[in-house]
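Dear Dr. H.,

I hope your travels went smoothly. While you were away I took the liberty of generating a structure for the chain from your last submission, since the lab meeting agenda had it listed for discussion. I wanted you to have the full record in hand beforehand rather than looking at slides cold. The sequence, exactly as received, is reproduced here:
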Amino acid sequence: MKPQISDTVPATVYADNWFKLYINGNLVAVDSISFIPHNVVSVDILPEYPLTIAVMAKDNADPKTGLEYNNSKIGDGGFILKFGDGTVTDASWKAKSFFRGPVNGKVDGATTEHLDIPNDWMEAGFDDSKWGLAVEHSEKAVSPKAPYYENDFEGAKWIWTDDLALDNTVIFRKVVESPPNGNPVPQKWPRGVIDASEKESSAKTFSEESHETSKVNVKPFAAHFPGKFTLESATEVPEMVKAFLPYKDQVGISWDEDYVYIEGNGLPMHPMMKGIKAWQQQVPLPHDFTGEHRFKLPLTPKVTEGTPQELTLKGPIALAVNGVPIFHALTQSGNDAYAAGELDEWGGHCGRADDYHYHIAPAHLEETVGKGNPVAFGMDGHPVYLANPSIDKPLDSCHGYFDSEGQYRYIGNLKPPYVMAYFRGEADLADRPRTIPVRPFLRPLRGATITEFSGSLEDGFSLRYSVDGKEGEVDYKVTEKGADFVFKKPNGEVSEESYERYKKNPTSNKFPLEFEVR
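The corresponding predicted structure, in token form, is as follows:
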């Protein structure tokens, strides 16, 4: 039996100033106006009980000050919802604030506090057991605008945290086991094949808009600056952050009391690929290392007592100061990438997801950062310096040592393991950005040597290679959805392919093995 429109129930939502609504992990509605005028959003939903309702609501507050109207005043929030099945907002909902400010409650000297928002806050299985309850507020306190009075919110209560003025981003959650109006639980309706679990909305919030003026070039993506502090807002810059400053136009830099967050597209400004003599037929493509997919480095790295933490062959073990990941000395196949001739003249190559990364310390960066400065940081937060025989101490089992000030450093050289053998500190390997492939990975092209690589994101790239004295070429251009390729084989064969980036399942860190080919 197919559901009819009569089986749906209306959902009516008002937020001061903005919201996005999920039901059972699926994005249902996004406020189309991020600030003013205030508006009511009404949609029809096909309920499937139990309903797990999750809402992110935001007041219009500058992420750096917590103020609004050009940092001239403190605003206030408010949220109200009513479904046609009798579901309404009230004090039984769970609520938690993730952005508070101005902390001092004043316009002068305004500062803010931010908490990391869990990636799965909208999922049915998310644990909100330690969250507090929402607080009901009067209509007078919220002072809604005309659209509120033009819609039916009877029985629903205005909710927020206990502080309408200073809590600016609040997430609400509620599980509705059955229709509150007493209607019978509807049958399980047949579901289509459309994936309604997309977690990213095309609607921009005011905080995202405020970052669009940044000069950071991470095309085709955009830096979100997830940390509490940025180069524009901070009065003091930590030493780790200073190491990335030579590349501040190429990476997004922000931080809080515990971590430094680095965003980028994974592509360096220097040339790539030339000189590779063992080619996997992969090419450099940009990857979205922004927002929740950023790199996170401990601002105050720890030192592990006893047995050090193992490295991993999968994913980055360190991050160069130009935003390019550094991988284990060995590839996933167990080959020493440097010794096998798989690396270009800059110590990098492309992985199976067409992701460019280094396998040795990027010594060429010293020309930009200056001699004696770190060229990278391990995922545990400890810096990587290039070898300097005049001051270096004997290397320990992790491929580093404690300097004269008691600070640990890894040493990059051209002897295996090149960068590090173990983590001297604690590395959160579960919280690293993952690459999303555009096309299936290919097998090595025996006897191929890459002779030239040129181009740009705007104009497209061209890679030339030779096999047995004959030349081949791969030309490609990054598109909004993926990349368009033209393959010119040494035997004269020419073929074209267009690939679309496969979307990651937001509830999983794994990627399917299928790819979309147009």
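Two observations you may find useful: The helical segments are 139-142, 146-149, 206-211, 239-244, 366-369. The first strand starts at residue 9 and ends at 16.

With kind regards,
E. W.
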